[in-house]
Amino acid sequence: MTVCDLRKSFGQFEAVKGVSFTLNKGESFGLLGPNGAGKSTTINMITGLFKPTSGSIVLKGIDVVKTPKQAQKWIGVVPQEIALYQEMSARENLKFWGRLYNLSGMELNKKVDEVLEIIGLTDRAKDKVETFSGGMKRRVNIGAAILHNPELLIMDEPTVGIDPQSRNHILETVKRLNEEGMTIIYTSHYMEEVEYLCERIGIIDHGEVIAIGTLKELREKIEDRSRMKLTIDGAKAHSNKISAVLAKSFSEKEFQIQDNQLTVFQKEPQLVLGELVSSVTETGARITSVDIIEPNLESVFLHLTGRNLRD
Amino acid sequence: MRRIFPILSLNFKNFLKTPGAIILMFVMPVVFSWIFGGMSMNSERNKPVVNIVAGSDEISEQISKLLKKDQNFNWEMAALKKARENVLEEKVLAVVVIPKDIEKRITGNLALFDVIIQKKSQDYLALAAYLQGTARLVSNSYQAADSLEAGAFPHFLAAVAKQKGVTVEKQTIENDSANHVEINLMVVGFAIMFMMFGLSGAASTILEERRGGTWSRLLISPARKFEIIIGYLSSYFLMGWIQFAVLLVAMKFMFGADWGKLSYLVPFASLVILMVVGFGLMVAGIVQTKQQAMALNAILIVSTCMLGGVYWPLDIVPEVMQKIALGVPQSWAMSGFKEIMSGSLHTGVLIKDTLALLGFTILFYVIGLRGIKFD
């Protein structure tokens, strides 16, 4: 799928300002962004719900903007809301959505059974969705999107508000679908989910893609550093001495003393650990613990999008 | 096109699973029609009784027949003594005595009938007016027969009683069928009102679906917009027809209602149901939430039903209100149904009603479809 210079305006407000990216078959792609960054608008344009102001989306050679109905046959969407008929059973829901994708008769029944198995709800198939827990509803929500074997599965925060067991089940299901060849676009505010599932990640903010690549590429792009946290007995009392000793080897930006904690920012902190320990003990302070924290997606995300609160 | 059916069937099944909707669409109109229809039928049966005391001569017999032509009263023959007792016991409204010397009374310009009553009620005033009219008719008949051969009066009277004045007979016939039409119209009125509530409520589920996400999910499925909207609207149309059919059959069994020619009734009722569905769509299109839709529906439906002659005949409201009624679709619907049920079908009137309803229907759909958000 190729998304090229996609733009969408609502009146005077330009929500998406020239988003471009390419997705290979079988790839899993994470789309991240703070609230109001434009990721939902981008997704809605890819699914054909919104017509872009300009730009193009081509999926399997089909122009999604011009012929959305042709493209929608190949797309499965797991919306953020539980978009199901609550008063109907899980099976009835799946059958209804399957019919809209031209499934019928034996084929439909077979697919419904398969999907119920995948989402782990075979034994509750006849129960009304309204009687389900949040996690079970989310699983049916996913089931309705994969019934027709889509080539592209778009998942918009599919694990919001569910228990760890259901979340784990969903992540495993998505991982398996991806391994079986389904292309995935995954959005979530849970960075560890995106880290776990996605080969490539696009970060979108203020309607623009501000970074795109693998997690490794993103880390390199922002030159993020690991953090080494040393807990020190009497760090406050010895802070001046410690600062003076460290200043000989590290720049001011590379360390920080707060309460009883010394944090050192280094690309490879293991290399300076010995020097650091001897410098601190020189001052008479006692180190009680050492933690090395690798930069993760969250730190990359916060680095790129800032720490200011969004609406 | 094949995606229409799953959407239609889904909405229809969901509707049948909603007890509130079933009560509103089927139970309420049947119950209302049964209660109010029953009241009207009883009022038919409870017409005031008037005893006639008459001799067995031909003139008295013919005058009795003449009196019995008025179907606003139940006329019963009785002996004078029994009739008096009936009046005293208030079993009858009045006793009309046809005197044996009626010819003398005519020539002597005296009162033709002796009337025995206990009190001058509203019903008596109507009876008195009728008796005066009948007396004039008898008197005129006597004078007309006087110029003919002797003994011609009873024969003349018999002829009058048989054919009677055109005015009297026409009035009698119209009164009879008009009562049935009024009851049928009342039933149809209830059907329209409850259908408007039911189908507008159903149409506003689109708003809930929009909020819940299923509407968006439908839009991003391969189903086209027209398939989705036809799926929804046809399910409402089907619900409307089932409601109407249930009511027609129920009233036929309960009151033996006559609905006129089906070849006219079915297409006209279909147009009315289509209009009601359009109304629901319009409301769903101009509000944001189901709660707003319910509030607006309540105001619009009750007020337009009042104006449109659903609760009472438009003949009894002032002329200005009758003019205002032309601005609401219910008045055209009621007029069309009245035309079909009366049996005396005036195609011109029905065409006018149909065209007006068609206009409202198109207007509702245009507003509704423009208002429904497809993204």
TrEMBL record, chain B:
Cross-referenced PANTHER family: LINEARMYCIN RESISTANCE PERMEASE PROTEIN LNRN, MEMBRANE COMPONENT OF ABC TRANSPORTER YHHJ-RELATED
Name assigned to this protein: Transport permease YfiN
Keywords assigned: Cell membrane, Membrane, Transmembrane, Transmembrane helix, Transport
Upper taxonomic lineage: Bacteria, Bacillati, Bacillota, Bacilli, Bacillales
Family annotation (InterPro entries): ABC-2_transporter_component, ABC2_TM, ABC2_TM_bact-type
Compartment(s) where it occurs, according to its Swiss-Prot or TrEMBL record: Cell membrane
Residue intervals of the ABC transmembrane type-2 domain: 150-375
Topological type in the membrane: Multi-pass membrane protein
Natural source organism: Neobacillus kokaensis
Superkingdom as given in the UniProt entry: Bacteria
One Pfam match: ABC2_membrane_3
Keyword Transmembrane found: yes
PROSITE patterns assigned: ABC_TM2
